[in-house]
Amino acid sequence: MAYELTEQQRIGLGLIGFGIFFTFLGVILFFDRGLLALGNILWLTGVAILLGWYTTWKLFTSRENYKGSVSFLLGLFFLFVRWPIVGIILEIYGCFALFGGFWPSVKAVLYQIPVIGWIIQYPVLVSTSTATFSFLFARPAKAHQQRAYKHCPLL
Question: Which of 31, 79, 102, 117 has the largest CB neighbor count within 10 A?
């Protein structure tokens, strides 16, 4: 096998899966706060175990990810002050903003799964998902990247 998961990474993926399951169950059961909180705790712990504590800290505290971090943490806050619908919406946006950079890798893995890969390779879905992710979650170019072409006479 080209890439095998360590035991720690398997545990992290399991916690992420249970976190998503409990969050989904909490939404289905009319935004049950207990299930939503449990799902968030499991998901955050799973991400930290999968990526590593330092990498997770850097992911949430980097300047490029401030929108995602702030919206995710505001979503947690709203969840705990009994506004679960607003909290879930902010958390979903925060997750997409934080992990939107991983979308090409996730898409490449999803293409390899037999049934899911066949479904998501339809031209309508490919153009829609690419346009949506590039519009909503594209990161602005850094200052040194914007100035790179400033002195080029052709541009």
Answer: 79
Give the pLDDT confidence score for residue 11 in this predicted structure. 92
Please give the Cα distance from 92 to 88 (Å, whole number): 6
Instruction: Give pLDDT, residue 154.
Output: 43
Amino acid at 65: N
Sequential DSSP letters for 49-115: HHH-HHHHHHHHHSGGGHHHHHHHHHHHHHHHTT-HHHHHHHHHHHHHHHHGGGHHHHHHHHHHSHH
Question: Per 3-state DSSP, what percentage of the chain is helix, strand, and coil (rounded to 5)?
Answer: 80, 0, 20
The whole-number pLDDT of residue 150 equals 47
Q: pTM of the predicted model, to two decimals?
A: 0.68
Whether residue 21 has pLDDT greater than 60: yes
Distance separating alpha carbons of residues 8 and 14, to the nearest angstrom: 10
Structure-block tokens of residue 17: 């899966």
